[in-house]
Amino acid sequence: MFDRDVDYPTAVASCDDDGVDAAIEWCVQHMEDGDMLTVWTALKSNLGNCPKLERLVHRNSNVEHVTGRGGGYIRGKGPVLMAWADMDDIGKLMRFGGRATRALCVIPAYDEAVRPWVSAVRPQVLGDGSAWEGAVPELDPVVVEAMKGLTLTVNHNNTISAGYEKDMVVSALLALHDAGIEMDGAGMQGWALAHGWSGKNPERLAKYVDDINVGKRPRCRPVAREDYIGRLRSRAAGGE
Q1: pLDDT one-digit tens code per residue, 179-201
Q2: pTM, to two decimals
Q3: CA–CA distance, 212 with 215 (Å, rounded to integer)
Q4: What's phi and psi for 59, nearest 5 deg?
Q5: FRET partner for 208 with CA separation of 20 to 30 A, picked from 8, 88, 116, 173?
């Protein structure tokens, strides 16, 4: 079994000038000798939306710009500054650049786009942090136990849209739903990202949850044991 938790420093920055300045400074502080600072945007043209980031890229040889549409591959080890990103973007980064990422700072496309990730990861807040004040709903402890089990048993190199991985995930979600346990798709996507799920799997997980919550039952081969929910409840209560 492997601990898949994100183990590098993380930060979230506001998208105003103060937030961008703080994000750049934070990333520079997390650079080591020989590092490359990677600025990530979804599209190449997005860089022009922020003159400060554009200057950072064009004036420094140890700063590289990569785009999600171009694959999002991180070629040099070092901190990553994701600008105008959402949780799907973070999943893509973790798939194609997770091993090279020394630290991650996210400037969100909009606050709600990454709120579940912020709730799960608890990153350092840079710039205007008012968006992250106040209580954030937490996942049901039984759901958390289910997610812990899936994290350890699913092969994260495979898609959860087919085969054994789909059977594991969907049968677990259906069992939770049938037991009347509340599931939050976005919250579970944020938790998954915080615990090493990558690529499209966190996004697909949220879609399964949202579909099941509105009455759909994705097809799968049932693999959950009859005592599955009981065991989850016991673990959530500290019984195992």
Answers
A1: 999 999 999 999 999 998 988 99
A2: 0.86
A3: 5
A4: -105, 0
A5: 8
